[in-house]
């Protein structure tokens, strides 16, 4: 993989910190609104909710920062502060931009029909970046990311609180990716030898979120979550949680395999859960 060019990692949170740690300190700089993580890399402090001073130039930007609101200012502030235009821009979007497809397979050229605020914000950010990159001659890679799990992000707190799940017969297929696999996807997307464009990313394991919660409980030695019917969920759950649970689709990952040339380390989520439990989850 070509890492000869400087990379700017915007957002040093759950995934961004791991991404920065995977790159040589001499070739990567982080951008964070809070204290720098305990890494040897340079990290620039910048609160993108406000206009910021000039940010370092880099051959590639990997942008993981979520929009704060419908009228997102973070991305425009970031673009305006770049000292020089990068050659390539990698953006973390969400697979939620496809909306609910009733479990049907969705490829990258499927129409966008985001139904949640989070997904609508990401869809708008995609459009902003597509226009900006075309105008500035910057290669754009959009990663449409499903649910991220890994150490410290298995939903153990929800299990401990006794939070219910949909019974399997009412649950649709799920899409997810282990954080280590997402880091590898981002590194591949940043490689100038990879084709720019839009990529669905995931582990290819489409078992439901209900199955995932039950499997986490089993492997963690916890009681299984209570499974409720769809009718019970409609009566008991919040509208936001219900809408999230009912969105159903299967991501077509052929571009990830063929053009990013990436095979997930954890294609079986059970193995990803085991690895995460063994790393301080």
β-strand amount: 15-25%
Shape: globular
Series of secondary-structure elements, N-terminal to C-terminal: EHEEEHEEHEEHEEHEHEHHEHH
State the assembly state of the protein chains: single chain
Mean pLDDT figure: 94
The CA-CA distance between the termini, in Å, is 30 Å
Provide a count of the helices. 10
For the largest beta sheet, what order do the strands appear in spatially? 3-2-1-4-5-7-11
Name the structural class.
Answer: alpha/beta
Q: Give me the count of strands.
A: 13
Low-confidence stretches: none
Please estimate the helix content: 25-40%
Radius of gyration: 19 Å
Largest sheet geometry = 7 strands, parallel
Could you walk me through the main structural features you see in this protein, from its secondary elements to its overall organization?
This protein is α/β, with parallel strands linked by helices and 281 residues long. The chain has helices spanning 14-21, 74-81, 117-136, 156-160, 179-190, 209-220, 230-236, 239-246, 254-258, 269-277, and strands spanning 7-10, 28-32, 42-45, 60-63, 88-94, 105-106, 139-145, 147-149, 165-166, 176-178, 197-200, 227-228, 250-251. It has a 7-stranded parallel sheet with strand order 3-2-1-4-5-7-11, sandwiched between helices. The longest helix is centred in the middle third of the chain and has 20 residues, at 117-136. It is globular. The model has no long low-confidence stretch (mean pLDDT 94).
């Amino acid at each position: 993989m070509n890492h000869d060019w400087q990379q700017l990692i915007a957002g040093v949170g759950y995934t961004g910190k791991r991404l920065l740690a995977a790159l040589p300190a001499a070739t990567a700089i982080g951008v964070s609104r809070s204290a720098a993580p305990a890494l040897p890399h340079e990290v620039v402090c910048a609160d993108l909710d406000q206009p910021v001073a000039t940010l370092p130039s880099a051959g590639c930007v990997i942008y993981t920062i979520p929009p704060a609101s419908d009228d997102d200012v973070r991305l425009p502030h970031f673009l305006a502060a770049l000292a020089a235009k990068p050659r390539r821009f990698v953006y973390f979007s969400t697979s939620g931009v496809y909306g609910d497809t009733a479990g049907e397979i969705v490829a990258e050229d499927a129409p966008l029909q985001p139904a949640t605020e989070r997904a609508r914000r990401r869809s708008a950010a995609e459009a902003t970046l597509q226009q900006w990159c075309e105008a500035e001659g910057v290669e754009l890679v959009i990663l449409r990311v499903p649910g991220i799990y890994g150490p410290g992000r298995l939903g153990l707190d929800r299990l401990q609180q006794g939070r219910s799940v949909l019974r399997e017969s009412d649950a649709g297929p799920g899409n997810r990716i282990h954080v280590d696999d997402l880091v590898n996807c981002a590194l591949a997307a940043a490689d100038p030898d990879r084709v720019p464009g839009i990529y669905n990313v995931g582990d290819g394991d489409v078992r439901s979120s209900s199955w995932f919660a039950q499997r986490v409980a089993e492997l963690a030695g916890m009681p299984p979550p209570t499974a409720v019917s769809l009718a019970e969920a409609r009566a008991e759950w919040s509208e936001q949680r219900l809408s999230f649970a009912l969105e159903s689709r299967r991501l077509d990952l052929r571009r990830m395999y063929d053009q990013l040339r990436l095979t997930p380390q954890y294609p079986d989520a059970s193995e990803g859960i085991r690895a995460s439990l063994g790393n301080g989850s």
